[in-house]
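#structure-requests
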Amino acid sequence: MTTTTSERLDPAVLKLAGILVLGALAPLLDSTIVNVALHTLGRDLDAPVSAVQWVSTGYLLALAMAIPITGWAVDRFGARRMWLAAQLLFLAGSVLCGVAWNLGSLIAFRVLQGVGGGLMLPILQTLLMRAVDGRQLGRLMAVVSLPALVGPILGPVAGGLIAGHLSWRWIFYVNVPISLLAVLLAWRGLPADSPRDGHHLDVTGLLLLSPALAALMYGLTRVGTEGGFGHVAVLGPLAAGALLLTGFACRATRTADPLIDLRLFRTRAFAVSSALLFLSGLAMFGSMLLLPLYYQQDRGASVVAAGLLLAPQGLGSLLAKGLGGVTDRVGPRPVVLAGIAMTALGTLPFAFAGRHPGDLILGAALVVRGAGLSAANMAIMVGAFRGLDRAQIPHASSTTRIMQQLGGSFGTAVLAVILQRQLADHPGAAFGHTFAWALAFSALAVVPALWYQRT
């Protein structure tokens, strides 16, 4: 069937998406590059692993604390101004990280970077959702998912090359030309928008929610270091975060203008999508930890080779971009279920990793897996924003980002513990057993997906 003009995205929306996608590319690349190069940072700065880990942890905590303020800031100052501010913060943080004189200064500047990165994705979603006004969400998600596909492919390769051949400072300088171009294009191309008058910041909510997210994320990052959840260093932050989060929920339901509008969860599709975004952390972010380790530790690949071997997953994600239009026509339910099935099928050969499947089989599995993850995540985001009015979009953007971050941290923590214990008990089949757990966790997503309404 020929695509009609009405089915195509408006050229102005495509231009807007291109500007925003470029801006989001730098922080997505940065995270993967830095994670690959942590060993090099520790060696060059003469610091132990426990200290160097704060280069990533500090960024992650700052990112988590910045997300809740995004909805208020977009309403108060306008999305265009806030996008430019986020870009400039990330750019300044990148330059300062490159000139850092010791580990302490590097961690401090990474926090600045994290604030800029934390603001970006919710603002991107807000600008684009307002631009299409609830129409053609699937096609739009297919376009804006590009940075999420490119980051995991190019990041490990770029990180390995920089760590192996250049000064560690280039880990951060590589962001500068991308960010400068993003700022220039945004300054010239983003449409002006008017701030909302009389929109007050929920200070009490901010003082509850931001520390809650930081505590939860910190506790989850300690799980792998402590070898499990049953340690004070893990349970303490998790308990404090849960308590603060409960306090925020109580306040948000009793105030007229909360920091995050929890009434969004009364919308069935949004509630289901939020649950799936959390569960997708086990399938996506957890396996992003497992796959490079499997290729490096179990199959003896170098960092650069492992990055190239993972490229088929990105190819599969690109192939699934055409399903955006399908989601617009049939709704998120069938696409999410099909995506979960493909993700499980693509993970299955890795569950038999102890038998050393061939690279061709694993490459084909990664194509299927990447297509499944991409299709499911596009459809989940379509479900999250369907039927929301313009005023709800900033709150929805912040909430979906929070669910993704918490789910990703939880998935990484759980699979790291499982892998650690499997390596101790069954070293020959550790990765296979851990991928089998990841397979089981992916299947859990079927339950909330069935709650989507049929279209």
